[in-house]
Every structure is written in structure tokens, then in C-alpha cells.
Design a protein that fits this description.
heterodimer, A: Tick-borne Encephalitis virus Glycoprotein, domain 1, 6-stranded antiparallel beta sheet, 4-stranded antiparallel beta sheet, 18 helices, 64% helix, B: OB fold (Dihydrolipoamide Acetyltransferase, E2P), 5-stranded mixed barrel, 7 strands, 33% strand
Chain lengths: 632, 137
């Protein structure tokens, strides 16, 4: 009964959104009545609240183990802690789509109500948002209904959540990611409304700036959490696999990053305005493309949900229409938007636009990498896959060029070019430091591989440019944009960490009997397999292994596990990680052989913690940017 | 021709050349970096050059897994043709007899040397080509 109530509330929201759209389109050509907006806004707010209440009830049902609802029965279990009962809602397609819509609604509601009542774009933005929410609500209810009942008798016990998803990082990862994805619905709808409106004297940047910055933060945290979770929970020891689903998250992120940058240029001077608008539309379009890739099952990926052509078709058509609508009005207005101001070469804008081009290039390359297997299969029926080598070769040169522009832009000015002579010193010193440092890296590691060295060099250029700038500004007590400096230092560190990780890390496959002890290399003098135990936990059996290492003269004990979950019979590997500043010692158990010995995979991952640390620096930089603006 | 126009033409050409170069680089690396996917039968039919990395998808034949230290030998089958596979390392948890497997590596002298065995989140996973065949039978 309560389930039907929840279902009914969602259906009512659909009706109200339809009413808003019908009601407004009737008056579309006529004169706008002053109360029309008030009424639409009220209806909008109520429809949004209905969705929230509906979702709230669904959460309640999940906590109270209503296994007569098919979705809850197949993804939750009465033995789960409440935290995971809630997070089981977004562990599969239907529920996660529901969450997606709830976030979409929440962003829309907050944004619309934050706009001043007389804001000329308010009504059009509201209509655009209603259209998008309606489209996704219909998608949820028609193709992937989470409220479906098991009739006539419900299940007695739930089938349990997939054990690898029973993890705090993974419980938070999807909400963060979705908050990021759908947050850009604001820039999308607002820019579309602006273009429809056609009064180009209006300032639109400041109204969506903070919203986009916040969405960017969520997106960054979401991607980082996903990568961190994959590293410690999946037991593969990697942090990024260039999997199609990771790629479709990276594309909106790159677009969003480019958008943030050109939004600055666009609000400082009027150049790059059209470009910024295009990016603002592109981010959400790419998020929609991501939703299509993940939820249609068209690409075989570890993340993709079950293959369902009907869902894929709906999403493709709906996302296509929405994107076409926005891009259509954009190209229609393009001639009248043209701002006839040239960008001064050598100014900050010029470097920004160069890097914008690079980011678009990288988005395009990823897009090609994701869709190329589909194109090939459609053309000649061959199945192909594109792995990390493609992305590495594409990204290395792009990163290098980007970091040169970043380095040049550190000391540049808005709208004015700076003579080469005055910037020579600020470029020369970081360049020299980078060359010296890379020589040290080569000397210490005695490994040379071209792509990682490009990455290291790029990272160093950015890092030293900003450090030098901070240092010299500190001496001369000049102003520095702290947020930007921190975020870019994060980026430099990221390049550095990723590249060093790829050349220094290594792995060993071992085969030992209990009680046995071996030497692995100069760093790990002793690896002993001390003990093995079989334990019982509430919903799984554990094989727990104790291993002690003598690594670099220090004693380390590791405790990797294998778990077998009773309800699904699924086996998971729990890695054991010993982290130090420079490297992680990462151990997983393999299988038992006939002679009673066990196999192990030992991975030494260098600088891996630095990857997540640098992502946090970027988030910190962005936070500082948001809050500093509020104060001044 | 006006100087400004000449400059613009130059810029246009430079951009054109750069983007053409960029796109051809992307396409070139796409073609050299992609892995073709085969089922065992398809692999025998296709004429694969030695040293060419491919992906092979099939089922792990029942009772075919032999372990020796960290080395694993098994047979990947599509119920028509069989390919012996060798791998050194720890396979993912979902690698077991009579279930789907995808391996990446090289086919040399009747033996597939796997660099990587792919893990799938889904325990019911089957390579798409095989699941179609199974539905038909």
C-alpha cells in the first residue's frame, strides 16, 4: 500500500509537469500574464516536493525490508546494516535512476527559487527544467519502474546487495557523481533560456557561476571516490582503467573544467562568450551521453547495467532531442551573438582559449575511443576494444602542450599581452628546475620510457611555475589567486604522480606454503606466509591470511582476505595495503593449489596516494575560489 | 590582398594543417592500439599475424584448469573449437570452470599466451557472441 502511494506520487509529479508545459505553451504566443509565472512556479515546486516525498517513502520501504517490491527484494537483505539498506537503492539501474532524478529535481528547485522573481529568464529556465525532469521521470516509470511489485506474494528474504558494493566509499560515490552530472543541468537550461530569450544585453555568467563550481566539485569528488574504491576494493590494484564508463565520466569533467575557465574569461571581458555558452551546453549533453552508454548496455563494461535495448532507445531519443534543441537554438542565434573582439595574443584569454581547444581535443579523442568499437562493429561486424595504450599516446602530447600554456598563463594579464622579455625569467627558472628534476628522476630510477617522462615533465612545469610564482609574489607581497594556484598545483602533482606511478610500480606473483618465507628483491628482504585462518562472519565466510614482510628494514604485517558471501555465493578479494609516503605495498590472495600452497599477488604501487591527494587539492582550490569571492 | 586578410588566411591554413595532423595522429593511434575480439572458432578462421595482440572470449572448459605455482593453464572453448591458454599471475575471483572468460594476449604456435584475464562484476557474464549462440540452441 505504501509502495503504491510512492508510485502514485511520482505519477502525480508527471501530471503536474505535463500541466506546466501545456499551460505555458498555450500562452506561448500570447501576452504573458503576471500571474502565469507565479502559478507555474508553484506547480513546479509542488511537483518537485512530490518527487522528494516519493523517494523518501521508497527509502523508508527499503529500510523496513519491504521485499514485496521487486527492486528491493533483489538488491537488499534484512541482515544489512541500515546504511547499506539505503545505499542498496542506488546499487542497480532502477534505483540509481530514481536517485539521479531526485538530484536533478533538487538542483532545479534550488536554482529556480534562487532567481529573482522578475528575472527575465526565469520562466524559460523553468520550462526547460520541467521538460528535462519530465523526460527522465517518464523514462523511469515506463522502462525501469522501481515500484514494481512481486505479485501475488512478495519475497521472504532479499537477494542481498553485491558484496563489492558493500563499502562506504561506494555508497557515497554514486550520489556524488550524480550530483556532479546533473548539476550542470542548470548551466544547460539557463543558457538555453538565454538563447531563446534573445536579449543579449543580459549578464548570465554570474547567475550560474557558483552553481557550476559546486557541481564541478561534486563531479571531481565522485570520480576520485570511484577510483579510490576500485583500487582498494576490487583487488586489481589499479586506479584508472580507461573503461568506457570511466571515460564517459571524464568527458563531462573535462568539459566542465574548460567551462569554468572560459566562464572567467567571459565574465572579465566579453570574449569567449559564445564559446563558454557552447561548453555550458556540452557538459550536460555529455552527461546525458554517459547515461545512455551506461544504461543501455550498448558497450560491454564492468559498470554497465543489464542490456536493455528499449531503455537505450528511449534515452538516445530523449537525450538527442534535448541536446538538439539546445544546440539548435545556439546555432540559430550564433550570427547575432558574434562579439567582434579579437583576443590579444599573449593575454590570459589567449592561453585559456588554447587550453580550451586542447580540452575539446581530449574530449573528442575519448569520445572516439568510446564509440570507435561501436562504429567498427556496425561497419564490418568485427569486435574490437580500445585499451589504455590508445589513451596514453593521445594524452601525453596534449598534456605537454597544455602545461606549456598553463606555464605561460601564470604570469599573463587579462586583455593585455605581456612582452616576452618580462616573462622570460618566470618561464626560464621553472623550466630549468624541471629539467634538473627530470634528470634526477632518470638518474635515480634508471628507467626511461617516453610517455611517462612527458607526463613527469608536464607536471613539473606546472608545479614549478606556480611554486616560483608563489615564492616571488611572497617576496614582493603581490596578490596571488590562491584557489587557482592550489588547484593547478594539484594538477601538476596529478601528472607527476600518475607518471611516476606508471614507471616505478611493479608486481610479483608468488606461490608459498603456510610457514614458508622467501626473499623477493633488495627492498623486500623477507616475505613470510605466517598463518591462515578460516573465520565466520554474519553473512560471509572469511579466509584470512597473515603475512609479514621485512621491507626496507621495517617490519610490516599484512592481512589480506578472501570472502565467500552466503546469499549470493559470490567470492570477493579483500586487499591488504600498507601505505607509506612514497609507496603502497598491496597484497591480495589468489587461490589454493593442490599441494596446499597459496598464490599471492604482491604489488608495489608508487605515488598512488598522491593521485587522490592531488584531486583533493583541486577540490580545495575550487572551494577557496568560491568562498573568497563571497568574502570580498 | 589586404595584409589583414592575408594574415587571416595564413592563420586559417595553420589551424587546418594542425587539426588535420592531430586527427590523423588520433586515427593512426586508434588503429594501432585497438584489440580485436574473437571467439575460438573465429580466431582459427582469421589469419592472425604472430605478435598481434588480440582479445579472446569463451568459456573455461570444465576440468581444464591446471595450476602450477603461479602459472595457470586452461582451455577456452566456444563448444566448437578449443584454445589452450596459459597465464602467469592471479586471475580474478570470477575466473572459474564453466563460466565466461575474456583474455588479452598473443596467439603463438597453437597456444594463447594471456597477459591479462578480465574480471567482470557480473557473475552471470558471458561473452556477447556466446550468449547469442546459447539462446539459439
Amino acid at each position: 500500500m505504501i509502495g503504491e502511494l510512492s508510485h502514485f506520487l511520482s505519477l502525480s509529479a508527471v501530471v503536474i509537469f505535463c500541466l506546466i508545459l501545456i499551460f505555458n505553451s498555450i500562452f506561448f504566443f500570447g501576452k504573458i500574464h503576471p500571474n502565469q509565472l507565479s502559478l507555474s512556479l508553484r506547480m513546479f515546486n509542488q511537483a518537485c516536493s512530490l518527487i522528494f516525498i516519493s523517494f523518501g517513502i521508497f527509502v523508508y520501504l527499503s529500510i523496513n525490508d519491504d521485499f514485496s517490491i521487486a527492486y528491493i527484494a533483489s538488491h537488499s537483505n534484512s541482515q544489512l546494516p541500515i546504511f547499506y539498506k539505503i545505499s542498496s537503492i542506488w546499487s542497480a539501474h532502477e534505483g540509481s535512476m530514481f536517485l539521479w532524478i531526485v538530484f536533478l529535481t533538487a538542483w532545479s528547485l534550488l536554482f529556480i527559487n534562487s532567481l529573482h522573481h522578475d528575472h527575465p529568464l526565469k520562466r524559460k529556465t523553468l520550462l526547460m527544467l520541467s521538460l528535462i525532469i519530465l523526460g527522465f521521470l517518464l523514462f523511469l516509470l515506463l522502462t525501469s519502474n522501481p515500484f514494481e511489485r512481486i505479485l501475488p506474494f512478495g519475497a521472504i528474504e532479499g537477494a542481498d546487495i553485491n558484496p563489492v558494493l558493500q563499502d562506504p566509499a561506494l555508497a557515497i560515490h554514486p550520489p556524488m557523481l550524480y550530483l556532479g552530472y546533473v548539476g550542470f543541468v542548470i548551466s544547460f537550461s539557463f543558457i538555453s533560456a538565454y538563447l531563446f530569450h534573445g536579449n543579449f544585453e543580459l549578464e548570465w555568467e554570474k547567475d550560474i557561476k557558483d552553481w557550476s563550481l559546486v557541481a564541478w566539485i561534486f563531479l571531481t569528488i565522485g570520480i576520485t571516490l570511484g577510483s579510490w574504491w576500485a583500487y582498494y576494493e576490487l583487488g586489481w590494484g589499479g586506479y584508472w582503467f580507461w573503461d568506457p564508463v570511466e571515460n564517459v565520466a571524464l568527458m563531462p569533467w573535462l568539459a566542465a573544467t574548460a567551462f569554468m575557465h572560459s566562464l572567467y574569461a567571459s565574465s572579465k571581458s566579453s570574449v569567449l562568450k559564445t564559446w563558454t555558452m557552447f561548453l555550458g551546453i556540452l557538459i550536460f549533453a555529455l552527461s546525458l551521453f554517459g547515461a545512455f552508454i551506461v544504461r543501455s548496455g550498448i558497450i560491454d563494461s564492468v559498470h554497465s547495467f543489464a542490456n536493455d535495448p528499449q531503455r537505450g532507445l528511449y534515452l538516445l531519443i530523449f537525450s538527442g532531442l534535448i541536446t538538439l534543441l539546445a544546440l539548435g537554438i545556439f546555432s540559430y542565434r550564433l550570427p547575432s551573438l558574434n562579439v567582434s573582439r579579437y583576443i590579444v595574443s599573449g593575454s590570459k584569454e589567449s592561453y585559456l582559449s588554447m587550453n580550451n581547444i586542447l580540452m575539446i581535443t581530449s574530449i573528442f579523442s575519448i569520445f572516439l575511443g568510446v564509440t570507435y568499437p561501436l562504429i567498427i562493429e556496425a561497419l564490418n561486424g568485427e569486435k574490437v576494444s580500445i585499451g589504455p595504450p590508445y589513451y596514453n599516446t593521445i594524452f601525453a602530447p596534449l598534456i605537454l602542450i597544455a602545461s606549456i600554456f598553463i606555464m605561460a598563463s601564470v604570469d599573463s594579464l587579462w586583455q593585455r599581452s605581456k612582452p616576452i622579455k618580462s616573462v622570460a625569467l618566470t618561464i626560464f627558472i621553472p623550466l630549468m628546475l624541471s629539467i634538473i628534476f627530470i634528470y634526477i628522476v632518470w638518474h635515480v630510477t634508471a628507467i626511461f620510457s617516453i610517455l611517462p617522462y612527458i607526463g613527469i615533465f608536464s607536471g613539473l612545469l606546472i608545479l614549478f611555475s606556480y611554486l616560483y610564482r608563489i615564492f616571488s609574489n611572497f617576496l614582493s607581497k603581490k596578490f596571488i589567486n590562491t584557489g587557482s594556484a592550489i588547484a593547478h598545483i594539484g594538477l601538476g602533482l596529478l601528472f607527476l604522480a600518475v607518471s611516476l606511478n606508471s614507471i616505478l610500480s611493479y608486481e610479483k606473483n608468488l606461490n608459498l606454503a603456510p610457514g614458508e618465507s622467501i626473499q623477493i628483491n633488495q627492498s623486500i628482504k623477507e616475505f613470510s606466509f605466517d598463518d591462515i585462518k578460516v573465520l565466520k562472519a554474519s553473512n560471509h565466510d572469511v579466509i584470512s591470511v597473515e603475512v609479514s614482510l621485512v621491507q626496507d628494514g621495517k617490519n610490516i604485517s599484512l592481512n589480506p582476505q578472501k570472502r565467500k558471501y552466503s546469499t549470493r555465493g559470490q567470492i570477493t578479494t579483500e586487499s591488504s595495503i600498507h601505505a607509506s609516503v612514497l609507496k603502497d605495498t598491496y597484497l591480495t590472495i589468489g587461490d589454493q593449489l593442490e599441494n596446499g600452497s597459496w598464490t599471492f599477488a604482491l604489488k608495489i604501487n608508487y605515488f598512488i596516494k598522491w593521485i587522490w591527494f592531488s584531486a583533493s587539492l583541486m577540490v580545495l582550490g575550487m572551494l577557496i575560489t568560491i568562498f573568497k569571492k563571497k568574502v570580498t | 590582398m589586404l595584409q589583414a586578410r592575408k594574415n587571416r588566411l595564413w592563420k586559417f591554413f595553420i589551424i587546418l594543417i594542425l587539426s588535420a595532423g592531430g586527427i590523423s595522429l588520433i586515427l593512426f593511434s586508434l588503429n594501432s592500439k585497438l584489440d580485436l575480439f574473437y571467439t575460438p572458432s573465429e580466431m582459427f578462421e582469421a589469419d592472425i599475424k604472430p605478435g598481434y595482440r588480440i582479445k579472446l572470449g569463451g568459456m573455461v572448459k570444465t576440468g581444464s584448469i591446471i595450476r602450477n605455482g603461479t602459472k595457470i593453464k586452461f582451455i577456452a572453448t566456444d563448444f566448437v573449437k578449443e584454445v589452450p591458454v596459459i597465464f602467469d599471475g592471479v586471475p580474478p575471483d570470477l575466473f572459474k570452470e564453466d563460466s565466461g572468460v575474456v583474455v588479452l594476449g598473443y596467439f603463438l604456435d597453437g597456444m594463447f599466451e594471456a597477459e591479462e584475464i578480465f574480471a567482470k562484476h557480473d557473475e552471470n557474464y558471458m561473452p556477447p557472441a556466446l550468449s547469442i549462440e546459447e539462446k539459439e540452441t
